[in-house]
Amino acid sequence: MGGPRFEPVRTVRAYERVVEQVEEAIESGALSPGQRLPSERELMVQFSVSRSTVREALRVLQARGLVRSRPGDPNGAEVLPFSPAALHKSMTTLARVDELSLAELVQFRMVLDAAAILLAARLRTEEQLAEMGAAVEGMRAAVDAGEETFGAADVAFHDAVVRASGNKLIEICTDVVRSIVLKLIAERIAGAPDRRALMRESIRHHEEVIAAIRAGDGPLAARLSRKAMYDYYAGYVSEGERSALRALLE
Amino acid sequence: MGGPRFEPVRTVRAYERVVEQVEEAIESGALSPGQRLPSERELMVQFSVSRSTVREALRVLQARGLVRSRPGDPNGAEVLPFSPAALHKSMTTLARVDELSLAELVQFRMVLDAAAILLAARLRTEEQLAEMGAAVEGMRAAVDAGEETFGAADVAFHDAVVRASGNKLIEICTDVVRSIVLKLIAERIAGAPDRRALMRESIRHHEEVIAAIRAGDGPLAARLSRKAMYDYYAGYVSEGERSALRALLE
DNA sequence: CTAGTGCACTGGTCGGACCAGTAGGCTACG
DNA sequence: CGTAGCCTACTGGTCCGACCAGTGCACTAG
C-alpha cells in the first residue's frame, strides 16, 4: 500500500485522436466556419495514419455537425458554422425511442416559451414587438390558407419572441422541441375536422400575449402563453398526461 | 407548365443507407439495448457493401450514442440504451464554440429548475420528499468536507427534484446544462476564498424550497429556487448579464 | 475436475486501387 | 480578341485484401 497508484490504460483509437485534434482546432477558433480542412490524402500524411482512419474521423466530425464534405470538391472538407442539427438529431432519437412522450415535449415547450416570454417582456425592443405583431397579422391572413401556412406564421411569432428573450439556448431548444412536436402530431392534425375556430382562438391568445409583453407584464404574458399552448395541444394527449400539463397553469 | 415536378436528386452515400437501416431497426425496437449487431464482416455481406463502408456507418452510429464496439469482442457491436451523452456532447460544443455564455446557461438552469420544482410541488410523493430532505442533510454534513462533496450533495438534491417532476426531458437537460456550468466555473471556484458562508446560505435556501414543495406551494418554491440560484451564481457573471438573470426573479 | 493452451473469431489499421464527380486552365473555334 | 467547350488534375466515395492485437471458448493435458 502507498505505492504508486496506476490508472487503467484506456486504449485510444487512432481515429479518435484525429477527431480530438480537429475538434480542438475548431473549438479553439484555429479553424473557423467556412475554412477548409486539407484533403483526406493530405490529412493522412499530417496525422501519419491511413486514409481509412482519416475518413472514419471525418465521419464522426460530420455526425457532430462540425464539418461537411462533398465529392469532387477540389478543397477539403468545409468547417461548418454551428448548427443545432446534431442537437436536433439526438433529441429526435430520444423521442423516437419512446423515452419521451408527447406530453413531456409539450410541457417542455410550455416551460421554454413561458420563460422566453417572461424575458421578452423585459428586454424586447420596439422592432421585435413589431415583428411579433406582423407574425400575428400573418396568422390572421393564413386562417383560410391551410394548416401549413398558419403553422409557419405561428412559428414566426414564437421565433420573434425567443429572439427577443436574448437567450440562444432557449432559442435552440424551442426550435428543436417544436419541430419534434409538430412532426409527432402532423398526421393527427391532417385528419382533424375544420380547425379554423381553433386558429381564431389561437390568434386571440397571441394578441393578448403581445399586449402583455408591450405592457411589460411578463408574468401575465407567460401565464397567457401557457394557457394558450395548453388549449392548443390538450386534445392530443391523454387525460392523465393533461393533468401534468395543467400543473403548469398554476 | 403543369408537367411533372421533378425533385433534385440527392445522391445518398452507401454508408448513410446503412446508418438509416440500423437506426430504423433500433428506433422501431427491432433491436433493443443489450442486443448485438452482426460482426462487421457479416454486415458487409448483408448490406452488400465493403467493410470500409460498414465501418464508417458504425462510426456514425457510435457518434450518435446508439452502439458501441469493442475490439476482440466475439459478438458484434452492442446496441446501447439511450443515454444523453450525444446530447451532452453537442451542447458542450455549443458552449465551447462560445455560442453560449455562462449567463445564458445559468439562466437556462434557473428556468428548468423552477419548472421542475413547480411540477414537483404538485406531483411529489412522500418518498421523493424524503430524498430531498436527505440530500440537504448531506449538504449540511459536507460544508466542511470541501467543495466537491458539497457539490455532489447539491446535485443529489436537484436530481431528486427533477425526478419528482416526472419530465424526463427536463431531467436530461438539467443534467447536461448543470455539468457544463460546473465545468465552466470549476476553476473559479477552486480559487475562491472560503465559501462556507455561501454554502450555509445555500442550505437555508434549499430548506425553504423543500418546505414550500411540501406545502404544495409551487410558485413560491419556484421563486425561492430562482433566487437561490441567482445568489449562488451571480458572482460569476458580469453586471450586464446579471440584469438578464434578474429578469427571471420577477 | 481443473488449469492451461490453442484456435477461430472479433474490431482496428494499413495500403492500394478504381470510379464519378468538380474546378480551372487550355485550346480551338467564332 | 472573346468565348465555348474540352482536358486534366485533383477531390471524395467505395471496394479489396492484408495484417495485427485482442477476446472467448473449446479442447487438451495434467
> Given the structure, what is the number of helices of chain A?
11
Low-confidence stretches of chain A: none
Strand order of the largest sheet of chain A: 1-2
Structural class of chain A: mainly alpha
Describe, in plain words, how this protein is organized in 3D.
2 copies of one chain form a homodimer. Chain A has 250 residues and is mainly alpha-helical. The first copy, chain A, has helices at residues 14-27, 40-47, 51-63, 85-96, 102-123, 126-141, 147-165, 168-190, 196-214, 218-233, 239-246, and strands spanning 67-68, 78-79. A two-stranded antiparallel sheet of chain A has the order 1-2. The longest helix of chain A is centred in the last third of the chain and has 23 residues, at 168-190. The model of chain A has no long low-confidence stretch (mean pLDDT 89). At the A-B interface, α1, α3, α4, α5 and α8 of A face α1, α3, α4, α5 and α8 of B. Chain A binds a DNA duplex (30 and 30 nucleotides) through α3.
Q: What is the gist of this entry?
A:
The structure is a homodimer of 250-residue chains. Chain A has 250 residues and is mainly alpha-helical. Chain A is 68% helix and 2% strand.
Sum up the structure in keywords.
homodimer; 250 residues; 11 helices; DNA-binding
Outline the fold blueprint.
The structure is a homodimer of 250-residue chains.
Chain A: H1 14-27, H2 40-47, H3 51-63, E1 67-68, E2 78-79, H4 85-96, H5 102-123, H6 126-141, H7 147-165, H8 168-190, H9 196-214, H10 218-233, H11 239-246
Antiparallel strand pairs in A: 1-2
The structure holds a DNA duplex (30 and 30 nucleotides).
